[in-house]
Amino acid sequence: MKIALLGPIAWRTPPRHYGPWEQVTGLLADGLVRRGLDVTLFATLDSLTPATLAGVCRTGYEEDAALDGRIWEALHVSHALARSGEFELVHNHLDWLPLAFSAHCRAPLLTTIHGFSGRNTWPAYASAANSHFVSISDADRAEGLDYAATIHHGVDLEVLPFSPRARDELVVFGRIHPDKGTAVAIDIARRAGRRMNICGITQDQRYFREQVAPHIDGDRVRYLGSVGPAERAEVLGAAAALLHPIAFPEPFGLSVVEAMACGTPVIAYPLGSMPEIIDVGVTGFLPVDVDTAVAMVEPAALLDRRRIRATAERRFSAERMVDDYLRLYRRLLGR
């Protein structure tokens, strides 16, 4: 089977620190190659992959201020679709832009929707009648699209080893933005009498400056920056719990699953995919506000970390994700 993976190019694949779409696409490429498929990954030219690497953009446009993302994404998509006749299937991980030109794709097109970047992109999805769609959670399905499957993301369990013992601190992990509830997490940790580690890129500078930075003292609240793969397991595995008090319907939430892989329980607001991802009383809790979140900190810290890890292995391994996609490829191609 000859497959093209049309990856995003905001960041390198796999990402050096942040880049969830790149992370998932890279893991899928790795797994498909291990299963003997002929895979070409269209990504940045500095990407690291066992697949055949193709592309036109030298590095992620978020990593080089000289690159205009609009231009390079258009060139990237044009390059991939020009070669689409070489493949049995083109699997798009690049949001709406390839869909706008899907009529020019000379192979069946499959699009994983990693969350809609905005309702204003809807016309591109609605007009792409020749693309099959995958949702990353049932909660993120949009009315009016015909989905081929829901396939949850998987994570590399080898780089997220089980941590049987935690320290007393809590962690919030992800982009610093009101949607992610970073300031709310600080409040929960303070009221629970726990230290807090903050990890992630700053996506909203004003929010960080006004609602997050004043609480960072290097002791009770520490900001560790955008934590890369080498440090991620250590930070997540050392936490008593991951706080995830989101303010939007999260399409999936990789940090939630990464924490579980380390054996760390999750306390998340029940929006978007969270009720689908978290097994209440097993891998975490779903409080509805700050008061109930504070009350859940101690029970979460007492959950069986080995059971949390075992649940992550069963539900959210990269191998399971690859198996799911391979079955879908075969079904779409009539194998």
Describe this structure as you would to a colleague.
- There is one protein chain.
- The protein is α/β, with parallel strands linked by helices and 335 residues long.
- It has two domains: 2-154 and 317-332, Glycogen Phosphorylase B (Rossmann fold, 3-Layer(aba) Sandwich), CATH 3.40.50; 157-315, 3-Layer(aba) Sandwich (Rossmann fold), CATH 3.40.50.2000.
- It has helices spanning 20-34, 69-82, 97-100, 122-127, 182-192, 205-212, 229-238, 254-261, 274-277, 290-301, 305-315, 318-332, and strands at 2-6, 38-42, 52-54, 89-92, 109-113, 131-135, 147-150, 170-173, 196-199, 221-223, 241-244, 266-268, 284-285.
- The strands form two sheets. The chain has a seven-stranded parallel sheet with strand order 3-2-1-4-5-6-7. It has a six-stranded parallel sheet with strand order 10-9-8-11-12-13, with helices on both faces.
- Strand 9, helix 6 and strand 10 form a beta-alpha-beta unit.
- Helix 1 packs across helix 12 (318-332), helix 5 packs across helix 10 and helix 8 (254-261) packs across helix 11.
- The protein starts with a strand and ends with a helix.
Give the full name of the CATH homologous superfamily of the largest domain. Answer: Glycogen Phosphorylase B
CATH topology of the largest domain, by name, is: Rossmann fold
Helix and strand pattern: EHEEHEHEHEEEHEHEHEHEHEHHH
| Biggest sheet architecture | 7 strands, parallel
**CATH architectural label of the largest domain:** 3-Layer(aba) Sandwich
Give the class-level CATH name of the largest domain.
Answer: Alpha Beta
Distance between termini? Answer: 10 Å
**Strand composition percent:** 15-25%
User: Taking all residues together, what is the mean pLDDT?
Assistant: 95
Number of domains: 2
Got a strand count? 13
Number of helices: 12
